[in-house]
Design goal:
Shape: globular
Strand order of the largest sheet: 1-8-2-3-7-4-6-5-9-10-11
Number of strands: 16
Strand content: 15-25%
Helix content: 25-40%
Order of helices and strands: EHEEHEHHEEHEHEEEHEEHEEHEHE
CATH architecture of the largest domain: Alpha-Beta Complex
CATH superfamily of the largest domain: DHBP synthase
Bound molecules: threonylcarbamoyladenylate, magnesium ion
């Protein structure tokens, strides 16, 4: 299959192009598109064949459920059995935006979309291109991140082209995404509600509205002995080809540790990369040093993380060391993805 790439120019003609892309979804095809978090790979959420095609294009296990994207709040009533008042409250506060809610599904949603579960994940994205495509695509668009299974989520169309060319019908290039990490997932079928995947909408923001909010214990811990509640979180996602180690501790000790180990690894024939903050990036001696942003600028670090992991792959880096980041608020999402990419390989120096 030849993939059509549609580049949006922020002109009136975009509207026609999005309408065409929407009709591809309505006819059972697959379209990758930007959202404010990462690029999604969209198909008709109410069509079981579309769901099957999504799993196939991604090479993703079909027990890993998809998020259904809507563009109007009232559409939530079509695809869920019950909408608790908590859902209405957090939708008022954070939708459209980077928040996904787990709710009991209605009969309209096929089990192919929910990976066999009786619950459905629902999100209303804020990206204008996503909103239009969902509307033109029939209102219910199932979309996982548009990466091949096991690779970092795409934050620019080029990443999608790398992973999905000739596997899907259309890629809509709407430029770089704003956030760079996937949405927060909150399960509203349990009481108190539980965060299954951290993201830009933090626990503090959610508990400001809902009161008590719990967290899946597996978010930052490898050794909890429990399976994550979001089926997708059990896979070693976001994995770069090189072996990644996260180094935690005081700045001086971290740079000294990384430099000593980078030197040995390079002597042993590795190509070594470092994920560094702006403050320390000048301190490292390695083949490739990538700066993700200032230490206190979580938004910048989040936006760069997946791009940097992909660049290490392209540049043939076989051993990667990363600084560790403060795991509070949005930083928790950054550390969750980084630790998963590292398969929880962490060196603690303090
Ligand atoms: O920001 C995002 O959420 C992006 C954009 C495209 O919207 N989408 C995304 O989808 O990250 P995906 O498929 O890569 O991740 C969805 C996660 C998986 O870990 C999946 O297991 C979980 O959501 N999930 C989906 N439905 C669920 C359900 N009913 N119960 C528990 N977890 C669910
Ligand atoms: Mg994903």
């Amino acid at each position: 299959m030849e993939t059509r790439i549609i580049k949006l120019e922020q002109e009136e003609s975009d509207e026609d192009l999005l309408q065409e892309a929407g009709s591809v979804i309505r006819c059972g095809g697959l379209v990758a598109f930007p959202t404010e978090t990462v690029y999604g790979l969209g198909g008709d959420a109410l069509n079981k064949n579309s769901a099957r095609k999504i799993y196939e294009a991604k090479g993703r296990p079909s027990d890993n459920p998809l998020i259904v994207h809507i563009c109007r709040f009232k559409d939530i009533y079509e695809i869920t059995e019950r909408v608790p008042k908590e859902a209405v409250k957090i939708a008022d506060a954070f939708w459209p935006g980077p928040l996904t809610m787990i709710l009991p599904k209605s009969d309209r949603v096929p089990y192919e979309t929910t990976g066999g579960l009786g619950t459905v994940a629902v999100r209303m994205p804020s990206h204008p291109v996503a909103q239009k495509l969902i509307a033109y695509g029939g209102g219910y668009v199932a979309a996982p991140s548009a990466n091949a299974s096991g690779r970092p989520s795409p934050t620019v169309a080029r990443h999608v082209i790398e992973d999905m060319r000739d596997k899907i019908d259309v890629i809509v290039d709407g430029g770089e995404v704003g956030i760079g990490l996937e949405s927060t997932i909150i399960d509203l079928t349990v009481s108190p509600p539980q965060i299954l995947r951290p993201g830009y909408i933090t626990r503090k923001m959610l508990s400001g509205i809902l009161g008590s909010v719990e967290e899946d214990i597996t978010i930052l811990k490898a050794d909890s002995g429990q399976a994550p509640k979001a089926p997708g979180m059990k896979y070693r996602h976001y994995a770069p080809k090189g072996e990644l180690t996260v180094v935690q501790g005081d700045a001086k000790e971290v740079t000294a540790y990384i430099n000593a180990h980078a030197k040995d690894a390079m002597a042993a024939g590795n190509r070594v990369g470092v994920i560094a903050t702006e403050e320390l990036s000048g301190e490292y001696c390695a083949d490739v040093v990538k700066c993700v942003g200032r230490r206190d600028d979580e938004d910048m670090i989040a936006r760069h993380l997946y791009t940097v992991l992909r660049e290490f792959d392209e540049e043939g880096v076989t051993m990667i060391y990363s600084e560790s980041f403060d795991a509070k608020d949005f930083g928790q999402a950054i550390m969750n993805r980084l630790l998963k990419a590292a398969g929880h390989k962490v060196i603690k120096l303090d």
